[in-house]
Amino acid sequence: MDFQHSEDRRMLADTLRRFLAEQAPVDRRNAAAYGDSGYSPAVWQGLAELGVIGALFPEAAGGFGGSGFDIMVVFEEIGRALSVEPFLGALTVGHALAAGRRADLLEPIIAGTSIVALADAEPQDRGPDAPYATRATPDGDGWRIDGAKAVVAQAEAAALLLVSAQTVDGASLFLVPSDAAGVSIQGYANVDGGRSGEVRLSGVTLTADARVAADGRAALAAAEAAALLALSAEALGAMEVAKAMTIEYLRTRKQFGVPIGKFQALQHRIATVLLEVEQARSAVINAADAFDHDQGADRDRRLSAAKYTVGATGQLVAEEAIQLHGGIGMTWELPLSHYAKRITMIDHQMGDQDQHLQRYIALGRAA
Amino acid sequence: MDLRFTPEEEAFRDEVRQFLVEKLPTRLSDKVRRGLHLTKADMEEWHAILNARGWLANHWPERYGGPGWSVVQRAIFDDEAARAFAPRLVPFGLSMLAPVLIKYGSEEQRRHYLPRILDGTDWWCQGYSEPGAGSDLASLKTSAVRDGNHYVVNGQKTWTTLGQYADWIFCLVRTDPTAKAQEGISFLLIDMKSPGVEVRPIVLLDGDAEVNEVFFTDVRVPVENLVGEENKGWTYAKYLLTYERTNIAGVGASAAAFDRLRATASSLTRGGRPLADDPLFAARLARIEIDLANMATTNLRVVAAAAHGGAPGAESSMLKIKGTEIRQAITALQRRAFGIYAQPFVPEALEEGYNGAPVGPEDANTAAPTYFNMRKLSIFGGSNEVQKNIISKMIVGL
User: Which of A268, B190, B327, B347 is 20 to 30 A from B394 (CA-CA)?
Assistant: First the structure.
């Protein structure tokens, strides 16, 4: 039993934290996050050169990490710095490709030269095992794809989209160049920074090898597992910073002639935040452990437990951080408000706290 | 980062499990599992079984009779014993007084009292709270006035758990009424058979009388029964309170109670389907289960830190709050599971050997009394609000 990260991972975390503090302090982060491209290509390239993307993948896939605790360490730092660089796309697409036995395609992703995005969600609500509205039909030797994908993170920046589509054999994954004929992207800013896009696919023709995973569900399950862990760790990192900022504010802000941290009503609220953040850290540790050691429903259950926990705790932390800051917590100028937005919006990615609680229950019944 | 126990620790866990299978009487575990009242003899029986194995005082130094376990081994034992529905050990002598004597007592006191705690000769109770001194413990008024070779004690203690069985009580008494509240307190050992000691039971909302008021009228206590120095009792009391909070998370006990809750939810129906399949009930169950799994890891993180020499600070307050919230949530859901049959109050059904016809489903009659009894968890050992004050003081630093 050891709850310290290994020396290598601590060094990775330190390097990442130092780089982001120097290259992407919150004012520069905001300029990039709310700017035209929604991220900083220079920061992205710098992080790729540091090997941060490679840390997300095992050696068999061309990386040098890829365990649950590697993903936890990297994404906790991403959360601490509110990084908007397209890591989640690299992580999800890379793990889907590796699960589909196409690790040969990962090299440019790990090098950071090819930005990729997972295009899975659709505008219309769909049950977890229901067919996709996006269809892939045989077209000569290749495929033709028609459909639409919703809120694809960094869709405009991506050179390649990993698109899930229904074939006669079930769901498959296709690698689609974003500049292919018939692909149109309606980009927009996200409320917490970064950009996403609605992707329309109209008669997009692809060669046969564009189908990178015939069994799309298995490959997507690998991507989803990595994403749930990553988003949970990112939420944890952002919550840690919001918590620290709020503690500092309670120490320094004076009203009625004393620091407001003297008031018991506020002390009890921050104490609750502190202990729930510790519980969230435990949930993320459990999820990383599940990613490495559990399979199937057991693994997914613990991942959903973590995503549920950071969803519920994130809402508490974000709301309390704003409330305890008072009016200044409402301002764009204060970095805290951007942390509160990011923490909150993570509950809108890959399923919210209610969906993951239900998934947790359903997986328990199946077991 | 590694959540797994070492092979040696797993082997130890197997040894503990084997011991529990062989030595924990089914009669006792059955009573604990069903939430029945334990008698004094029940508690003494389990105490003696552990003592015979040398595992009773598992946190004491070896030279006083401890087994020499690591922090991790202690956590494993506590966890396994709770999951096996072993009776909770009465902590007052073993876990509260003994650590104080070991750290602050005289060698004579250690040699006299510690063996008597182990072999069950002395049953101890705790004389801390008073009618006017609850969370504000330092405002206590029970006085001890020096008279030759004795202190003369006058005053009243309350919420004295299992004081009706006690041979001795360790008391915080005021020896200097002129000093600041915390500075005039001493730590005194008082024989309950002394003239002038009177115990009166307090019936609690579940109908049980596990706590008492203890009155002291001109009770003469030999000066050698003072622990440490006069007027330094507050230091010892605070040390004791940190000890009281070890294993405060109660993960094993909550896990056992949760398993029982899940079994209840599977055996009962509501609206024509298993209660466990009711979407709202299932959601409440799942939230508790996730909270508990997170708590188990939080607890192990604190154990691992302690194994590396870290002193628990704000963490033990966090464990106390969250651990008791989870346990209370379990008892609330257990009560609600029985619906209308949580209502019948059948005190006799809480005793061993009750042969009357059960009213409603099995275990229904213990659910509400247990729920009400467990409201104490967030009140005793420093209320959860006091714990929040402690967390805030340690971390916000104001």
Answer: B327
Q: 3-class SS at B169?
A: strand
Name which of A1, A268, A285 is nearest B385 (Cβ-Cβ). Answer: A268
Tokens of B180: 């600041």
Question: Measured between alpha carbons, how far is residue A198 from residues A151, B117, B140 in Å?
Answer: 5, 72, 68
To the nearest whole Å, the CA of B275 is away from the closest chain A CA by 13
Answer whether A291 touches B (CB < 8 Å).
Answer: no
Chain B: residue whose CA lies nearest to A8: B1
Whether residue A357 is predicted with pLDDT greater than 80 in this model: the reply is yes
Instruction: Give A2→chain B minimum CA distance, Å.
Output: 5
Chain A residues whose beta carbon lies within 8 Å of the beta carbon of residue B387: 271
Of A2, A275, A281, the CB nearest to B321: A275
Domain definitions of chain B by residue range: 7-89, 123-230, 245-395
Is the Cβ of A366 closer than 8 Å to some Cβ of chain B?
no
Closest alpha carbon within chain A to B386: A268
Q: Provide CB contacts within 8 A for B16, sequence distance 6+.
A: B76, B77, B80, B81
Main-chain dihedrals φ then ψ at residue B258, nearest 5 degrees: -70, -40
Residues of B involved in catalysis: 244
Task: Find residues 33-92 of chain A whose CB sits inside 8 Å of chain B.
Answer: 69
Among the partner residues B4, B303, B318, nearest to A275 by beta-carbon distance: B318
Domain A217-366 listed as CATH 3.40.50.300: no
The predicted structure's pLDDT at residue A128: 78
CA distance B112 to chain A (A): 39
Cβ <8 Å between B297 and A308:
no
Q: Where are the domains of chain A?
A: 7-114, 117-213, 217-366
Residues of B in contact with A268 (CB under 8 A): 385, 388-389, 392
Question: Does A1 contact chain B (CB < 8 Å)?
Answer: yes
CATH number for the domain formed by residue range(s) A117-213: 2.40.110.10
Average pLDDT estimate for A117-129: 92
Homologous superfamily assigned to B123-230? Butyryl-CoA Dehydrogenase, subunit A, domain 2 (2.40.110.10)
What's the pLDDT score for residue B316?
A: 87
Q: Decide: residue B176, CB within 10 A, 0-12 exposed, 13-18 middle, 19+ buried.
A: middle
- Counting as low any pLDDT under 50, the low residues of chain B are none
How high is the pLDDT of residue B125?
98
Q: In the CATH hierarchy, which fold is given to the domain comprising A7-114?
A: Butyryl-Coa Dehydrogenase, subunit A; domain 1 (1.10.540)
Question: How many inter-chain contacts (A to B, CB under 8 Å) are there?
Answer: 116
Tell me if the domain spanning B245-395 has CATH number 1.10.3720.10: no
Question: What pLDDT score does B305 carry?
Answer: 86
Residue B74, pLDDT score: 93
Contact B392 A261 (CB under 8 A): yes
Q: Quote the pLDDT of residue B262.
A: 96
Chain B residue with minimum CA distance to A6 = B1
Query: Average per-residue pLDDT in chain A?
Result: 96
